[in-house]
């Protein structure tokens, strides 16, 4: 059975790229709804590494589906 993840990229407060993934997202959400949800993470100010906010701004997101094929 294929597995779907939401892969999102954020800019950190230090202008670096931070990649975050979420397993089994609701794929019926529109791009606008997904973006709005991800933007909520930027408002929380909870996720810091060495004092730098990791979710400063949303850059991109996509659904990625992986299908495993057993060979033997």
Q: How many domain modules?
A: 1
Distance separating the two termini: 17 Å
| Global mean pLDDT | 93
Principal-axes shape call: globular
Strand % is 35-45%
Strand order of the largest sheet: 2-1-5
Number of helices: 1
Q: Provide the gyration radius in Å.
A: 14 Å
Description:
By secondary structure, the protein is an alpha+beta fold. The protein has one domain (3-66). It has one helix and five strands; from the N terminus they run ββαβββ. The protein has one helix spanning 31-44, and strands spanning 3-11, 17-23, 48-49, 52-53, 57-66. The strands form two sheets. It has a three-stranded antiparallel sheet with strand order 2-1-5, covered by helices on one side. A two-stranded antiparallel sheet has the order 3-4. A hairpin with a 5-residue loop joins β1 and β2 (17-23). It is globular. It holds the Pfam family DUF2922.
What is the compact description of this entry?
The protein has one helix at 31-44; strands at 3-11, 17-23, 48-49, 52-53, 57-66. It is of the alpha+beta class and 72 residues long.
Quickly list its features:
three-stranded antiparallel sheet; 5 strands; alpha+beta; DUF2922 domain-containing protein; two-stranded antiparallel sheet; 72 residues; DUF2922
């Amino acid at each position: 059975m294929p597995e779907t993840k939401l892969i999102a990229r954020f800019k950190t407060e230090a202008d670096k790229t931070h990649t975050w993934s979420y397993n089994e997202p609701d794929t019926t959400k529109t791009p606008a709804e997904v973006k709005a949800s991800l933007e909520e993470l930027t408002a929380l100010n909870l996720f810091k590494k060495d004092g730098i906010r990791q979710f400063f701004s949303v850059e991109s997101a996509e659904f990625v589906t992986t299908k495993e094929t057993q060979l033997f």
